[in-house]
Design brief:
The chain is of the alpha/beta class. The protein folds into 2 domains: 71 residues, Nucleotidyltransferase, domain 5 (2-Layer Sandwich); 150 residues, ATPase, nucleotide binding domain (Nucleotidyltransferase, domain 5), CATH 3.30.420. It is 35% helix and 27% strand. The protein is built from 6 helices and 11 strands. The strands form 2 sheets. It has a 6-stranded mixed beta sheet, with helices on both faces. Helix 3 crosses helix 6 and helix 4 packs across helix 5. The longest helix has 27 residues. The chain is globular, with a radius of gyration of 19 Å.
Length: 244
């Protein structure tokens, strides 16, 4: 039994695997150790816990995980692909795991991985199996929060999927800037990468990917929990390395 955890800036996502079988997958608040406890009690004690985190593990979660054999993903973990990033120690574990999922899904392929979370990350894996790097920009909610926090009168808004191009109110204008601005950013990044890699495949993941459609090209795929998927890929890769 393996417990895989993706600790983001807002949520904790968890998956339980037994061998090659996914038993369950869920998400919760990072402090919600009660849900994790119920999860492990329902399916049995995991042999291993593998976590990817973009921040310090909260104390309550840290105490809970002390009962398990916990391994944390980093650039020092044995990976199935190479890393050309000049500062690998600063590379987010979530980005590493997402690229691992892309490597498994589309071997020997140029893949652009877009993760729509608190921040938007664009990560490029080339067909030779080398992670090249990418970019990071504010996510939709971060853009809306920034407009509210750094102005005197702009309200705090939640994004909406059906956002008009031309806002008729201040709120609509803010939503257009945040949501449509993000959409145009994605489209332009994809367009520019297509100029370099004509055979490019694009994967879009993360909680905010629901606000977009992917009808730009037929080589664009949506994925729900790419980080958890990648954690399983890395675990399996390391297990196979031990057997060789």
């Amino acid at each position: 039994m393996q417990l895989l955890l993706d600790l983001g800036n807002t949520l904790l996502k968890a998956a339980l695997w037994e061998g090659s079988k996914l038993l369950t997958e869920t998400s919760m608040d990072a402090e919600d150790t009660e849900t994790l406890k119920q999860l492990t009690e329902s399916y049995g004690t995991p042999k291993l816990c593998f976590i990817a985190t973009v921040r310090e593990i909260p104390e309550k979660l840290h105490v809970f995980l002390n009962a398990f054999n916990v391994q944390q993903l980093s650039h020092n973990t044995n990976l199935p692909f190479g890393i050309a990033y000049r500062t690998p120690a600063t590379l987010g574990a979530d980005r590493i795991a997402a690229v691992a999922a892309a490597w498994k899904r589309f071997p020997d392929t140029n893949v652009l991985v877009i993760d729509m979370g608190s921040c938007i990350t664009f990560d490029l894996l080339t067909a030779d199996g080398i992670y090249q790097g990418g970019s990071i920009s504010p996510g939709i909610r971060m853009r809306l929060k920034a407009m509210h926090a750094f102005t005197g009168r702009l309200p705090l808004l939640e994004p909406l999927p059906d956002t008009p191009m031309t806002g008729k109110t201040t709120s609509e204008s803010m939503l257009s800037g945040a949501v449509n601005g993000t959409r145009f950013e994605m489209q332009q990044y994809i367009h520019q990468y297509y100029k370099i890699y004509e055979d490019l495949t694009v994967i879009v993941s993360g909680g905010d990917n629901k606000y977009f459609d992917y009808q730009f090209k037929n080589s664009i795929f949506a994925a729900s929990n790419l980080v958890l998927e990648g954690l399983k890929v890395i675990l399996d890769f390391n297990e196979n390395q031990k057997l060789e």
